């Protein structure tokens, strides 16, 4: 299927289809110089498939991991484009997860004040979440996404078959974001994840998740209002994540972060779905360590904390909360 995402200045197509990787040349305008950005954890055949559809491709393979999403990589990619004589009418294509997409998109937004950007997300997280919405960024001084822009892609190509090579742990992390999306806006999607086989149903899960994200980002492109509901589960996820010693991935922190902010009737079903997905539902931190982590994270979040609550599956509300109330909720739900 193809969906079209509207932006303030135009729109872009998102193709979601098994074996779509072979169709990059149909969806993207690749009869020009194309910087194909990927990382060394992504099977090289995916970038090669895109490159083979280009008239003149330059594939750059970066080291995998969040550590690559920084200003050094940003500068290196821009320098490569300048050295190789890329012009304003050339383009950048990301082939990889959210790290590659965020970085390559930011490079595209900056080179000669903006060249066309195409995205081929290959992790479930990038396919259900980061590939649309136009947020591109790099990390700086330990702060995630501190430097970035809103820069929508020209087109997005999602081939669920690329998930065949994705580890179960990374797959589960993407599923955590799909579960989040289902809880805030789509009860039928929650049922599908709860009852079905998510690897088999990946195409439908991606399409349903993106339909919600599309509706939300179209209503609020620059995160002034309703887009905040996409942060469900993220308030304490950030605090857990910032304690990197614990080695949890983002999606795993989101899984944990949703549990305290849903109603009593929702919580058992959520925990069941998370367990089935292989996501954590308990955090073996001592005593008040989580509240301590939240206090440290509070410096980044500020005092006025908007929390997203889900009391009915498929529905949510935004609640302004003083920090001590947030602390009480988190203490009240033993993770
Ligand atoms: N822009 C947004 O709106 C938005 C939203 C959510 C997250 N993000 C960002 O996304 C990033 C996380 O993205 P991610 O979870 O995709 O992580 P990631 O990009 O680091 O990918 C995870 C791992 O999977 C590997 N990989 C990618 N595709 C693969 C495949 N098909 N088969 C096998 N291995 C594969 C990668 O090499 C990497 O090692 C973070 O930087 C986060 O800030 C952005």
Notes on the structure:
This protein is α/β, with parallel strands linked by helices and 335 residues long. The radius of gyration is 20 Å and the shape is globular. The chain folds into 2 domains: 2-165, Rossmann fold; 168-332, Dehydroquinate synthase-like, alpha domain. Helix 3 packs across helix 4 (98-110), helix 5 (124-130) packs parallel to helix 8 (202-219) and helix 9 (234-242) crosses helix 12 (289-301). The N and C termini lie far apart (39 Å). The mean pLDDT is 93. The strands form 3 sheets. The chain has a 7-stranded mixed sheet, sandwiched between helices. Strands 7-8 form a two-stranded antiparallel ribbon. It has a two-stranded antiparallel ribbon with strand order 10-11. The protein is built from 13 helices and 11 strands. The site of nicotinamide-adenine-dinucleotide has 29 residues, from helix 4, helix 5, strand 8 and helix 6.
The CATH architecture of the largest domain = Up-down Bundle
Q: How many discrete structural domains?
A: 2
- CATH superfamily heading of the largest domain: Dehydroquinate synthase-like - alpha domain
Mean pLDDT: 93
List of distinct ligands in this structure: nicotinamide-adenine-dinucleotide
Q: Class of the largest domain in CATH?
A: Mainly Alpha
Low-confidence stretches: none
| Span of the ends, CA to CA | 39 Å
Shape verdict: globular
Residues in helix, %: 40-55%
Task: Describe the main β-sheet briefly.
Answer: 7 strands, mixed
């Amino acid at each position: 299927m193809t969906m079209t995402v509207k932006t303030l200045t135009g729109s872009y197509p998102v193709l979601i289809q098994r074996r779509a990787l072979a169709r990059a040349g149909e969806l993207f305008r690749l009869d020009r110089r194309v910087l194909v950005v990927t990382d060394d954890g992504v099977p090289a055949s995916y970038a090669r498939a895109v490159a083979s559809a280009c008239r003149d491709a330059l594939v750059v393979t970066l080291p995998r991991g969040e550590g690559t999403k920084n200003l050094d990589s940003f500068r290196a990619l821009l320098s490569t484009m300048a050295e190789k004589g890329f012009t304003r009418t050339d383009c950048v294509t990301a082939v990889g997860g959210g790290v590659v997409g965020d970085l390559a998109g930011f490079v595209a937004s900056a080179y000669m004040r903006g060249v066309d950007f195409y995205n081929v997300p290959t992790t479930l997280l990038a396919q259900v979440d980061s590939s649309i919405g136009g947020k591109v960024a790099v990390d700086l001084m330990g702060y995630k996404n501190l430097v970035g822009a809103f820069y929508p892609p020209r087109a997005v190509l999602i081939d669920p078959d690329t998930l065949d090579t994705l580890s179960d742990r990374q797959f589960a992390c993407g599923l955590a974001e799909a579960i989040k999306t289902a809880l805030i806006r789509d009860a039928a999607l929650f049922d599908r994840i709860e009852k079905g086989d998510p690897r088999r149903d990946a195409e439908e899960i991606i399409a349903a998740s993106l339909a919600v994200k599309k509706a939300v980002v179209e209503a609020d492109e620059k995160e002034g209002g309703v887009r905040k509901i996409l942060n469900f589960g993220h308030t304490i996820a950030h605090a857990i994540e910032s304690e990197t010693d614990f080695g949890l991935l983002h999606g795993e922190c989101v899984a944990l972060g949703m549990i305290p902010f849903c109603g009593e009737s929702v919580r058992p079903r959520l925990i069941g779905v998370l367990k089935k997905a292989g996501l954590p539902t308990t955090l073996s931190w001592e005593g008040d360590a989580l509240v301590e982590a939240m206090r440290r994270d509070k410096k980044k979040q500020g005092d006025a904390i908007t929390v997203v609550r889900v009391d009915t599956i498929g529905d949510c509300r935004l609640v302004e909360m003083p920090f001590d109330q947030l602390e009480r909720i988190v203490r009240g739900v033993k993770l």
